[in-house]
Amino acid sequence: MKLDAWIALTQEQMPARRWMHTQGVRQSATELAERYGADPEQADLAALLHDYCKFWPIERQVEAYQMYGLPGELLAYDPQLLHGPLAAEVARRELGIADEAVLDAIRWHTSGRERMTLLDKIVCLADYIEPGRDFPEVARMRELSLTSLELSLLAGFDSTIRFLLDKGKIVYPLTLAARNSLVDELRSGSNNITDRS
Amino acid sequence: MKLDAWIALTQEQMPARRWMHTQGVRQSATELAERYGADPEQADLAALLHDYCKFWPIERQVEAYQMYGLPGELLAYDPQLLHGPLAAEVARRELGIADEAVLDAIRWHTSGRERMTLLDKIVCLADYIEPGRDFPEVARMRELSLTSLELSLLAGFDSTIRFLLDKGKIVYPLTLAARNSLVDELRSGSNNITDRS
Fold first, then answer.
1. Inter-chain touch A154–B168, beta carbons under 8 Å
2. B168 to chain A: which residues are within 8 Å by CB?
3. Of the candidates A54, A149, B128, B163, which lies 20 to 30 Å from A124 by C-alpha distance?
């Protein structure tokens, strides 16, 4: 299977408005990859597929998630968290994507994780700041994204955490861990981690 | 050793201003215990000892922490987090306190923990709202504390987390876990957990 087929299949998985969002994330991810020295093709592919399963009925998501034996711990949290790990698994098994860096960027695009790779950060950030997004912090995040992936993404995670605190909702612990990890990176100056080995 | 001796020893460990804070926490913890059906003597003793080691030089805290074999993981975080677990250990080994519920309330008074006991909540909350405290959310927390330990303490943890986000500092994961646990309790209506077994 090649890019054209993946594009056609992805478009079928979601309503037109969300396909526009996906196109926006592809554009932002490609731009960020060019700016920060990542591979634009990897960024584009991960961006294309990041929401592949998001608009499946939640029952279908849970069923596929369990069928593929994904970590059950996540099922105790907001169902919105399932679609990233599920899309990575579907991309591997059903679309034939073998690039682990691309699969990781898909897998962690909503929650983040500790010691995110450059590609993880790019896809996660592109999802926050693509041209169709409109929320209070987005202008500042776009501005920060011109000079620091980490500061921009930190502002994004912080806004997500504040939003959940304001709403009295559970904050997924991995998102706090991802955010703390960025604070550590910024403090130690070890930005743009590309190798997790 | 008895209460009078513990009081005299505790007062020796801290400057006069912080002894006033300790007295305030004792007062608030006793009141909360009476309001919510905990043992006022346990609440008073945990409140008395909660900051026993806080004003030791940090080198002495780290040395005692390591000497007593306490979990090393905490040493990677803000040194302000050491004094609770350390005070519980000092209370057990040096002051002869054997009441595990009291030791737990001392141990977890700064960070909180998942599934806090009634006594844990009372001491942690008293530390936030004692009469000498003055921070933006304290008036609302005092008001909430008249009707719900959990809502008041949740407001406290949320204010701590927001403060650390604003400052770009690491948020200790256990504090988020404690906060999420309160959200769960409030949602399921299982307030005032007194038995962790």
1. yes
2. 154, 183, 186
3. B163
The pair phi, psi for residue A93, each rounded to 5°, is -85, -35
Q: What is the pTM of this model?
A: 0.92
The DSSP secondary-structure symbol of B130 reads: S
Q: Is CATH 3.90.1140.10 the right assignment for the domain spanning A3-188?
A: no
Q: How many beta carbons lie within 10 A of that of residue A172, not counting itself?
A: 23
**Contacts of B106 by beta carbon, 8 Å cutoff, 6+ apart:** B46, B49, B50, B52, B84, B87, B88, B91, B123
Quickly count: other Cβ atoms within 10 Å of residue B20's Cβ. Answer: 14
Facing residue for B180 by CB, picked from A162, A171, A179 = A171
C-alpha A33/C-alpha B128 separation (Å) is: 46
Q: Which of A137, A152, A165, A174 to mutate to test the interface with B (most CBs of B within 10 A)?
A: A165
In this predicted model, what pLDDT tens digit does every residue of A114-155 receive, in sequence order?
999 999 999 999 999 999 999 999 999 999 999 999 999 999
Domain parsing of chain A, residue ranges = 3-188
The reply to whether residue B169 touches residue A162, judged by beta carbons under 8 angstroms, is: no
What sections of chain B are H helices per DSSP?
3-12, 16-36, 40-49, 58-67, 83-93, 100-107, 118-129, 138-145, 149-167, 173-188
Q: What is the ipTM of this complex?
A: 0.90
Testing the interface with B: which of A153, A158, A176 to mutate, by most B Cβ within 10 A?
A176
Residue partners of B61: CB distance under 8 A and separation at least 6:
B53, B79, B82, B83, B86
pLDDT digits (tens, 9 = 90+) for A16-50: 999 999 999 999 999 999 999 999 999 999 999 99
Distance between start and end Cα atoms, chain B: 30
